[in-house]
Each structure stands twice: as C-alpha cells, then as structure tokens.
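Can't paste images in this forum, so I'm doing it all in text. The chain is below; anyone willing to post the predicted structure tokens underneath?
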Amino acid sequence: MKYRIVEVMALQAFGIAGTHIQPIRTQDTISALHFHFQTTVGAGPHINHLLAAFPKIEIVDGSDVILSVSGTQMAAIGFLQTGKLATYMVFTAYNGVHDAEVSIYFGRWLYDELLALDPGKFDNLQIRITYNSVLQDASNTAVGIEIHAEVFDEKVPSPIGFLQTREYERHVPATLTVHPIELPVDLPIRTLFVQSEAVNIDIANNLGRTRLDEDNDKRVLYDLAQLRWEAFNLKWYPDCEQRFIMVGAQGPGVWLFGAPSAAGMIQVANATGILAFQSGAAVAGRYQVITAANTDLLYGTLHGHHPYGVMAMPFGKQMDIDDWYDTTGVRDLRFRVWGGTAIGANPLLATILQQLRKY
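Text version of the structure:
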C-alpha cells in the first residue's frame, strides 16, 4: 500500500477549557492532518461556531512553531485550498454532542511528493490544542478531540519542504484607521489571508482597504478596497456551500452559525410539516429561522462566500512552487490594513501567512 491513514489520537473527552499536548509518534511522512472536534452542548443558545471553541491549533518542535491557526482559520484555509468544506453539515440543537471536522494540508494537494511534513527532520513534534467550549455556547460542558494523519507508506517521497501556515498578527480595528504590519521576508509566501472575526457584522463593514508594498512604497503589490478584494476572491474561489439541521424557535435569538459569511443565503425546509417559518437576514455567518413551534425540525443549505470571514490573496500559480512570492532581496514588506466604516462589537482582524518552508 502506497499510503495509509494513521490514528494520531483516539477520541478523547476533556473538560470545559484547557490545552492538550499530543505527541506525533509516527515517523512516516505526513501529507495531511485531520481533526475531529466535538462539543457537549447544554440548554443553549449558541453564540458562535463550534470551531470557535478551538481558538488555537499548533504544531511545535520545542520553541519552533510549524503551524498556528484557529479552528475557523484552518477550516477556511482548507476550503480555499481544496474547494471543499471538511465540515459539510452543521447543527443547532441543544442538550447533545455536536461535531466538526477540519484539515490541514502540508502540500499543494493530498500526497504531494515535493511538499509534506517529515517528522524525521524534527526532534520532538507535538500538536498543541487550546480549547474553550464556552466560546461556542455558555452551557457547554465538555469537548472531544480525535486526530488522524494521511501518510506515505510503501511510497517513500523526498519532500523539499512543506507549507507552513501561521497566524502572524491580530489586532482590534478602529473605524477608517490604518494599522501597519511588518511581514517577515525569510520565506517565500504562497498566500496571505485576512480573517474578520466579528460575528455580528459583515466583513465589508469590519475591514476597509488593504495595501501591500515593498521597501517603503518603492513597489506596491496591491492596493485594494475591501469590495474590490472581495470581487477578486469571487473570481478565484468557488462559492461556499454547507448543509444544516436545526431545531427552530418561535422568536428571535436562536442562531445557526455556518461557514459562508458574506452574501449569505439560506434555503430551508420544515421537516415537521407544511408549517410557516421566517428566515432572517444573514450577517457574518450567522443565520436565523423563526418557526411556528419550538420543536420544528428544519434542514437546508447555506450559500455564500468568504468562509468563516476569511479572504485570500494568492501569490502566483498556487500549484507552481517557483511562481510564489520570493521575498529574497526585499528589506521591508509592509502590509497596511484599514478598519471598516461600521465596525461591530468585539471586532478582530487576523493576518495569516502560508509560506514555503524548505528542509
């Protein structure tokens, strides 16, 4: 068999909040890691995505950080790389266990022989997961974590390196105010991502213009208003679609949190019968359906773009390693981010880089 699936960690239950450290014991070259997350939900209501309960997922080798993203960032980047959501269905129901899947790929595609994570190149690889279940729902009582790896088996690749994905910076935006970020120039950059984390306001209001320049404006790589960047993303990436099942409510305040976070549309059917329901406007991945009874079972599909509030700026042909942004010779790489015109409550903007790291 050329490839196989390795259980890195069997499903294990944890309490409300904490950090779990899991050694990577396999010495086989890893093409992808897949995480299965659970939350045990009480009486509700939800205040955010299930994946918000996993605010940091890291791979470290001592002080060397190889991966560092949140659960929602990993899900969004996985979609933007593959065109598929690992969590294809979301649930809103209370007093039960909810599930979500996320994946991280260390190559351009699954089983990329040139780019993969080789544990033999490191001393002590560990996965470090920070969890806080009340970030999804104040009534949550526990989380569950399970991890698998897709590895090379009889086929022995000779990877030159891997895709290193890390959140580089995060800040609280101010209305129409510029925030400068000095980006690293040590590794080639494949893709730059920005995530708007406000759950109560669209990315178009939370994020304004962005501009990337070299050596004090000697060369401007791009300078775009948010709506123009959004228009390019719609050309480059497919629409995001996610199925859902939820128990409706007679009044407002029961939210369904889905991946599509901009131009969100909901298609819904009432499985209980031909009963009236009303769907509200979608805002930043937050959807609402008001039903005739609190027991109405609803199912349907969510459509939109910018999964989990993430926008991407790819540099070059994404499958051509030599085409990525080589920062050799760049002394100063400045990324400027402006706050939007109507920033919501508790806003955050995060900048994530996916870089080529060679062995």
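The chain has a mean pLDDT of 92. Residues 206 and 343 are 5 Å apart (CA to CA).
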